[in-house]
């Protein structure tokens, strides 16, 4: 080090500002160009699914089903002890991947085929996660982004068993924007007629499997849908927006770097998609007798949720069928999370086993 250099006060505000301008940034994350179809990415971060992580997630998203909190209720549902909640397992499986897949920025657009082949999963399980690039595509509407879909699998690090798997799609920034057709048609699109809603909305009498089946029977052959809203709402705060994603090692700047996000379309940090959907699902589950979660499909994130927004939920019951067990039947739902302005922020279908009244 030279004498002149030792005399520089690098913390002098003006000097430091000039130094920052000249310094290269050690970048994090990958641009769109880094992903090629068929690539397999083994994610370095791992996570031990702890009781603390599980309970923090479930409590803050209002998933208060006793089977995940009390041993007697867990045993009554066929678990050895309170298991890891599927929403936390899903969020942790995704959180670990962000550093490699989406830390560069962009938007979590949607996910499908969320399944839990290895559940129940218990506290202390170590998660190891890998993702395979399923497809890469140009965004015709946004030249600065590409669209990438990955198949992700979260495995038990000890046994290699797949515990959670899904296909997820993000918009990912390109290093170099490309020319696109702008995504729009030159012709003026005619506004489609607004589809008429059913004239009657049926609400199930209770939360048992039979209540859902009877409600569908009541709606059958009539201009009716089994559709209702849930009373609870959850306003987004520091814990839900920044705390929960960081606890899953989700390094997306969207959730915790308010400085960068001030210049983004949302103008603020945004809630992790898995927090939004888990909160809406928590509201829905509070009005049903859930037995097991089976899977989730066609999940879409429609717009941002930011601190101060309140997440509510609306449910449509699509099907109710007998399952392979005496205690429960299988119900397929569509859940829509919406904000305080009644705007949908998330939608997706869910298949769950719902306890029978008689069991
Ligand atoms: C994890 C994680 C991050 C997060 O959790 S971020 C929080 C969750 N996500 C969000 O808050 C995003 C909410 N969505 C939006 O704000 C808007 O949808 C968005 C992303 C601004 C796009 O708005 P547009 O009006 O431009 O929407 P389009 O419907 O035209 O979509 C743009 C293009 O994307 C394609 N696309 C949309 N959804 C899907 C999908 N599920 N699968 C495949 N492709 C999809 C759509 O077709 C459009 O394609 P073009 O070719 O026409 O551009 C983390 O960091 O990982």
Q: TL;DR?
A:
This protein has 359 residues and is α+β, with helices and mostly antiparallel strands.
| Count of DSSP strands | 13
Query: What does the overall shape look like?
Result: globular
Sheet/helix structural class: alpha+beta
Order of secondary-structure elements: HHEEHHHHEEEEEHEEHHHHEEEE
Q: Considering the protein shown, what is the CATH homologous superfamily of the largest domain?
A: Hotdog Thioesterase
Number of domains: 2
Question: The CATH topology of the largest domain, please?
Answer: Thiol Ester Dehydrase, Chain A
Q: Could you name the ranges where pLDDT drops below 50 across 5 or more consecutive residues?
A: none
- Provide the CATH architecture of the largest domain: Roll
Output mean pLDDT: 94
Main sheet: strands, sense, barrel: 13 strands, mixed
Percentage of residues in DSSP E strands:
25-35%
Helix fraction bin: 10-25%
Radius of gyration: 23 Å
**CATH level 1 name of the largest domain:** Alpha Beta
Ligands present:
ligand LRN75BOA
Q: Helical stretch count?
A: 11
Compute the separation of the termini in Å.
78 Å
């Amino acid at each position: 080090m030279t004498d002149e250099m030792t005399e520089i006060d690098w913390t002098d505000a003006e000097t430091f500002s000039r130094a920052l301008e000249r310094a290269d940034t050690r970048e994090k994350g990958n641009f769109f160009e880094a992903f090629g179809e068929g690539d397999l990415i083994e994610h370095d971060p791992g996570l031990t699914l702890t009781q603390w992580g599980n309970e923090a997630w479930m409590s803050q998203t209002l998933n208060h089903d006793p089977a995940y909190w009390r041993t007697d209720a867990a045993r009554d549902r066929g678990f050895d002890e309170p298991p890891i909640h599927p929403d936390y397992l899903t969020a942790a499986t995704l959180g670990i991947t962000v550093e490699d897949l989406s830390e560069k920025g962009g938007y979590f657009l949607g996910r499908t085929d969320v399944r839990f082949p290895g559940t129940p999963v218990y506290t202390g399980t170590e998660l190891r996660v890998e993702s395979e690039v399923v497809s890469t595509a140009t965004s015709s509407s946004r030249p600065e982004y590409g669209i990438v879909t990955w198949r992700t699998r979260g495995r038990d690090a000890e046994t290699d068993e797949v515990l959670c798997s899904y296909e997820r799609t993000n918009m990912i920034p390109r290093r170099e924007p490309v020319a696109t057709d702008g995504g729009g048609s030159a012709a003026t699109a005619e506004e489609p007629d607004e589809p008429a809603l059913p004239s009657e909305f049926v609400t199930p009498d209770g939360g048992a499997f039979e209540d859902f089946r009877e409600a569908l029977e009541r709606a059958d052959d009539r201009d009716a849908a089994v559709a209702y809203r849930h009373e609870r709402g959850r306003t987004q705060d520091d814990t839900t927006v920044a705390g929960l994603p960081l606890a899953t090692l989700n390094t997306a700047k969207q959730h915790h770097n308010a400085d960068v996000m001030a210049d983004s379309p949302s103008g603020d940090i945004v809630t992790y998609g898995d927090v939004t959907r888990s909160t809406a699902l928590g509201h829905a589950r509070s009005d049903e007798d859930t037995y097991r979660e089976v899977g989730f499909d066609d999940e879409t994130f429609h717009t941002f949720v930011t601190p101060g927004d309140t997440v509510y939920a609306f449910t449509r019951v699509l099907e109710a069928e007998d399952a392979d067990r005496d205690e429960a039947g299988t119900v397929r739902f569509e859940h829509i999370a919406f904000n305080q302005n009644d705007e949908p922020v998330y939608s997706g279908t869910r298949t769950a086993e719902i306890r029978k009244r008689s069991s």
